[in-house]
Specification:
Length: about 375
């Protein structure tokens, strides 16, 4: 198949999943075309069957804001026509599914029908989509997609709760590449971070309010009082300044390191003893899954899709949103009991293996084949005519 992938090229979960999916499809012999405004963060090396098409909005003084939506729609039409794309897979309902629909109508007027699969990742539903200004576009784009997937059962339920959806939504979980995310010996690195054998706690995110990174620091403060430990904060974002000020106010800056964005996050997870994710909204929890693949137990909230990934009392612990006391108590319990900690490490790996890309990738391939079948998309083409 020749597949066009539209995504945000950032370190966020949707961009990571879209890129890793494309890389996996390319390795299986499919031709994959990424279409976005910047090369995706994880598309770092040359690979056979991978193509990148940059979308650029002309800098024109006529517009206060460059018309990216129009530029992307035009680029999609161009790539579909000249690369003979079989199917477009867009990640995020807004704006990508809406733009893909525009491109599909243009192509239809030219006598070409290209089916569109939309993957919902979470923020497009839980934060953007519920804004009344965007809600009609989100619902329309989902219903007009030839196929729709969601990354968790929780997100599928939320989508139906928030919008009037007539389309089917297939749950295909996010996945992990075990060739990259696995526990390896990095003792020399661990000793540099924790020279006295301290426990290493890791959190990775984009430092938005919804991630509640301040709770990570407060959990660590209580943990550090009981268990010698270090905290590694991986990522960056709008809350970083506030977090640095919090760190200074509780006098723990010597124990907390702000590492910024990291490409090789798996090397940090390889030395971690615990991963903390106190988010107020997570459609799936990809960062937690990456930690579990590296045999790191997870302390998290019980929101969204997290209970589908982190199994309470087995791979880690779940707590109510904002319950810093409970999360800290669970962290202390786990890190004080080495036998329990090792058991949770094994369980985390076993659970993560359910989401191996080797299991998930065939589900996407089968879904593409289903959408491309004449019974599905020719009927859709007639309804769009």
């Amino acid at each position: 198949m020749k597949i066009g992938i539209v995504c945000y090229p950032t370190y966020g979960g949707s961009g990571v999943v879209a890129t890793e999916l494309g890389l996996g499809l390319a390795q299986k012999g499919h031709q994959v075309h990424f279409i976005t405004y910047r090369q995706p963060a994880r598309l770092t090396t040359f690979q056979e069957n991978i193509y990148y098409h940059e979308v650029s909005s002309a800098d024109n003084t006529l517009y206060e804001y460059p018309p990216y939506d129009t530029a992307l729609a035009s680029k999609l039409v161009d790539v579909v026509n000249f690369e003979n794309i079989d199917l477009l897979h867009v990640h995020y309902a807004i704006p990508h599914a809406a733009i893909a629909y525009m491109a599909k109508k243009i192509l239809l007027a030219q006598g070409r029908y290209v089916p569109v699969v939309t993957t919902l990742h979470g923020t497009d539903i839980t934060l953007v989509g519920t804004n009344k200004a965007f809600a009609p576009v989100v619902a329309f784009s989902i219903n007009k997609s030839d196929g729709v997937t969601a990354v968790s059962k929780s997100l599928e339920r939320q989508t139906r709760d928030f919008f009037q959806i007539d389309n089917d939504i297939k749950v295909i979980y996010n996945f992990i590449d075990f060739q990259r995310f696995r526990r390896v010996n990095k003792d020399h690195f661990k000793k540099a971070i924790a020279p006295n054998g301290e426990r290493i706690i890791v959190h990775t995110s984009n430092f938005r309010k919804v991630k509640r990174v301040g709770d990570v620091i407060r959990i660590f403060q209580k943990l550090h009082e009981q268990v010698p430990s270090k905290l590694l904060l991986v990522g960056d974002g709008p809350e970083r300044r506030n977090l640095e000020e919090l760190c200074r106010s509780i006098h723990l800056c010597e124990e907390i390191r702000f590492l910024g964005k990291q490409d090789a996050v798996e090397e940090l997870l390889a030395i971690a003893d615990l991963f903390v994710m106190p988010s107020e909204s997570e459609s799936f929890g990809l960062a937690a899954l990456e930690a579990m693949a590296c045999e790191v137990p997870v302390i998290s909230t019980d929101v969204g899709g997290l209970p589908e990934v982190n199994i309470h009392g087995k791979t880690g612990f779940l707590s109510r949103l904002g319950d810093v006391e409970d999360m800290a108590a669970n962290a202390i319990k786990l890190l004080r009991d080495e036998k329990l900690h090792q058991e949770f490490r094994r369980n985390a790996l076993q659970q993560a293996q359910r989401f191996d890309i080797a299991h998930i990738l065939p589900q996407y391939e089968a879904y593409y084949e289903h959408i491309l079948s004449h019974k599905v998309y020719e009927r859709a083409a007639k309804s769009e005519s």
